[in-house]
Design goal:
Layout lengths: L17 H20 L11 H12 L15 H15 L1 H12 L6 H10 L5 H34 L1 H16 L18 H15 L2 H9 L8 H25 L12 H15 L14 H13 L12 H15 L6 E2 L2 E2 L2 H28 L4 H12 L14 H16 L1 H8 L18
Antiparallel strand pairs: 1-2
Length: about 450
């Protein structure tokens, strides 16, 4: 059974691994998006390839970092292109792997089956078809519901046509964890609006929790029947949400530039919930990121680095990766051979994969920040925040995005791309697979 793509234009199949197909898919989307954004009808101003590629890459990787104002520097056509790129990029893995390969019945080799099964946390191709149906229903349901909810905010202020478009744009952007907005100050003017503070974080959490989790919730609706992945994601998401909301409120409560500007305790709490929930995966904000306390900034760096769930629209190293690292550390401290969660043992292969992903991600962020400090005269914390935000495909910024030079923009584009595709997938695609011919005896080293 062939492991490459099916032969379409000739007898010989193109031998591209699944990870290579994923990389090429995103590259094609970015190139096509940049070309469309360069059209005169897409923007009222003259933009160069640097701005077009950066915007397209940010949209496809559902990041939200911008060098141009989405609502002011692009026409309706340009905004439609950006929204289409967000939708395709946010659901890219699932859309192209499941809908195209499975629903259209294209020939699938053994390696593709294994890749799809592992990547989507399924056990058979029939599960992939079932997941595709759930994905379509969830996407339509929540994006439509989000549009209706946000319309109650935007239509009274901007009228039916513009208000509905803004509601649709922000609902799709929020569900795909993109962070793109049509307002230069994001949602800061609606920091006390209950609809915005409920609808947007809800869309972000649902889009970022993972489609495998949503499939379990849709079909089983019973804790005992949930998979281990679903249980870990639900517990981890709730724990991170509670910790980030309470910690952020505690730190920023009296900061006059953030939560301290609100008089009512309810407004402060709403702003805390919005900002804590959106920081892990989406780049919307109701507060000035540059005015945060250093401790809040450090917490946000950790949240952005962790990100959301696997097989979701979110970025980062993923919640389950972080949980496995914690469980492995706890197992080591308790002198256990394997980490355990919900009476299930996690194998050494899973732990090794997690350690590789964490090491690659940390090395990538640190190296990129180091290079950015060499070429850009910008505050170190701002550059570090920018790098982590780009890798986590979050989109929050402390104002450094517009100040980056051309080389700095290229670094951020690379971070967004790798953060979306996945450092581990990219590493496996680039690495040469050579089976070991010699098995060496074990050795001993001293650690700690």
């Amino acid at each position: 059974m062939n492991s490459g793509l099916p032969s379409v234009f000739g007898r010989r199949a193109i031998n591209i691994p699944p990870s290579g197909v994923l990389v090429l898919t995103y590259l094609v989307l970015i190139a096509a998006g940049a070309a469309l954004l360069m059209l005169p009808a897409a923007t009222p101003i003259d933009i160069g390839w640097s701005e077009a590629v950066f915007t397209a890459a940010s949209a496809v990787t559902v990041t939200g970092l911008v060098v141009l104002e989405t609502g002011g520097d692009f026409t309706l056509l340009g905004q439609c292109v950006i929204l289409l790129l967000i939708q395709l990029g946010g659901l890219g893995i699932v859309t192209f792997a499941v809908l195209i390969l499975s629903m259209l019945g294209l020939p699938i080799g053994l390696s593709q089956r294994i890749y799809l099964r592992d990547e989507l946390n399924q056990t058979s191709m029939s599960d992939l078809l079932r997941m595709a149906l759930v994905i379509l229903r969830v996407v339509v349901l929540f994006e439509l519901a989000g549009t209706i909810a946000l319309a109650f905010v935007f239509v009274p202020e901007y009228g039916w046509t513009e208000g509905l478009w803004q509601a649709l744009f922000h609902a799709v952007s929020a569900f795909n964890n993109a962070g793109f907005g049509l307002f230069p100050d994001s949602f800061t003017r609606w920091a006390g609006d209950p609809i915005v503070n409920i609808a947007v974080p809800l869309l972000i959490v649902v889009g970022g929790i993972g489609f495998s989790v949503l499939t379990d919730l849709y079909h089983y609706r019973s804790w005992r029947r949930f998979s281990l992945h679903t249980r870990l994601m639900l517990v981890g998401t709730l724990a991170l949400a509670a910790w980030s909301i309470l910690t952020f409120a505690f730190i920023e409560w009296n900061n006059p530039a953030t939560l301290g500007q609100f008089q009512a305790a309810g407004d402060k709490l709403m702003a805390s919930i919005f900002q804590a929930l959106t920081t892990r995966t989406a780049g919307f904000n109701t507060l000035d990121m540059s005015a945060l306390e250093d401790s809040s900034t450090l917490m946000f760096l950790a949240l952005m680095f962790i990100g959301g769930g696997s097989t979701s629209t979110a970025g980062g190293i993923k919640v389950t990766t972080f949980i496995v690292i914690v469980l492995a550390t706890v197992a080591f401290l308790r002198r256990r051979s394997d980490p355990v969660a919900f009476h299930r043992r996690l194998g050494h292969g899973e732990v090794m994969k997690v350690l590789a992903l964490f090491s690659l991600a940390l090395a990538l962020v640190m190296t990129s920040t180091f290079v950015l400090t060499l070429t850009n005269d910008i505050d170190f914390m701002d550059l570090l925040f920018e790098a982590v935000s780009a890798f986590g495909t979050v989109g929050l910024s402390r104002g450094a995005t517009g100040e980056l030079d051309q080389f700095g923009r290229a670094i951020v584009i690379a971070l967004m791309f790798i953060g979306r595709v996945g450092p581990l997938v990219l590493a496996m695609f680039l690495a040469t697979r050579l089976p070991p011919r010699i098995r060496y005896p074990s050795g001993r080293i001293f650690l700690g």
